[in-house]
Amino acid sequence: MKLHLAHDHDWDVSTEKARAIQERLAAEVRSEGVTAGAVETVAGVDVSIRDDFAQAAVCVLSLPDLDPVDRAIHRQEIPFPYVPGLLSFRETPPVMQALEQLEVRPDVLMTDSHGLAHPRRFGFACHLGVLLDRPALGVAKSILVGDPAGDLDSEKGSRIPLVDRSTDAGETIGAVVRTRTDVNPVYVSVGHRISLDEAVALTLRCSPRYKIPEPTRHAHRLSRE
Predict the structure, then answer these.
(1) Average pLDDT, the chain
(2) What's the N-to-C CA distance of the chain in angstroms?
């Protein structure tokens, strides 16, 4: 799959420059676009770190059957130090190389990470989506910033807002979503070119059996091979 970058920047930068890049590109994020019911392919994206190497995996699944239709792996030295809030600078370069190997062009990118639910509203899902100008969402297993706005019902499909209360008004930055009854939730947020409601709907559509949606579950297994 030939990648066409809508934006680009240097990767060998200081942490201060990296934060400035996030703040600049965060203004490009769009929370509207694709409709979950119209999506035919989703690419799960995951990166595993081992010693000094990052192994990026992309697994494309078709909908509604969730069958794998394409996959790719790229392994390289870690391009950026570990800094909380800047993990996309470690993970985006190898993921880009893996995406280049795909023959199927996915409709949506689903990352095992956050999008807008990030201190600077620019998590990995946003970074990847904005650079490629592709629909993207983040489905994370833990909270990076924000708090659930209330108590989540135990049934599958239940959701409540994930809210950043650092401002007086508070800001909804994602959703706490139960993908399996009586199992801990996941945290869904917009990456780019998708609304939060559609991101939640797509997450549930991709989670027929397990807590983790099938695209990122497949990608996680692939990244650890």
Answers:
(1) 96
(2) 22
Write out the residue range of the structural domain in which residue 92 sits.
15-223
Instruction: Output the CA–CA distances (angstroms, integers) from residue 72 to 9, 15, 57, 76, 125, in the order listed.
Output: 24, 29, 6, 14, 18
Residue 94 has φ and ψ, to the nearest 5°, of -65, -35
Cβ-based burial of 26 (10 A; exposed 0-12, middle 13-18, buried ≥19) = middle
Nearest to 135 by CA among 34, 216, 26, 45: 34
Q: Which residues of 42-81 are buried (b: 16+ CB within 10 A; e: fewer)?
A: bbbbbbbeeeeebbbbbbbbbbeebeebbbbbbeeebebe
CA distance 38 to 68: 18
Residue at 47 is within a domain: yes
Say if 101 falls within a structural domain. Answer: yes
Let me know: does 189 contact 175? Beta carbons within 8 Å.
yes
- CA dihedral over 100, 31, 127, 141, signed as positive or negative: negative
For residue 95, pLDDT beyond 80: yes
Q: What is the CATH number of the domain that holds 108?
A: 3.30.2170.10
> In whole angstroms, what is the distance from residue 2 CA to residue 147 CA?
39
**Contact between 46 and 219 (Cβ < 8 Å):** yes
Within a domain: residue 2?
Answer: no
Q: How far apart are CA 193 and CA 83, in angstroms?
A: 27
Report pLDDT digits (tens) over 54-68.
999 999 999 999 999
In the structure encoding, which two tokens stand for residue 51, read together? Answer: 């010693």
Does residue 177 have a pLDDT over 90? yes
- The mean per-residue pLDDT over the stretch 30-48 comes to 96
